[in-house]
Amino acid sequence: MIATEFYxxxxxxxxxxxxxxTDPGICRVYFLPEGAPEREIRLVEVNNLVAVRDDGVFxxxxxxxxxxxxxxxTVKILDVSPDQWAKIERHELTxxxxxxxxxxxxxxxx
Length: 110
Description:
110 residues; alpha+beta; 5-stranded mixed β-sheet; globular
């Protein structure tokens, strides 16, 4: 396979836009590029309709969107409530191992 340029921010923006348009509970989407493996897009979706778990353990869902070809990549999405996101920002809850807030990009609902 020939390696091609991959623009994770562009892909993240496209996924965020699509999810914001189709899920009325999502109020913001964050792209967390720091620490992610090459061609892995990590998104945190802040969702007013997500069920809040009290155990504070977060497990992202992996979508093998395109595993082969010139645009091969995976997407991992973590759904959190607004309260959980606030606690993550205050470092009262932790993200999954290897997920970092450094360099995050926010995609708000328009």
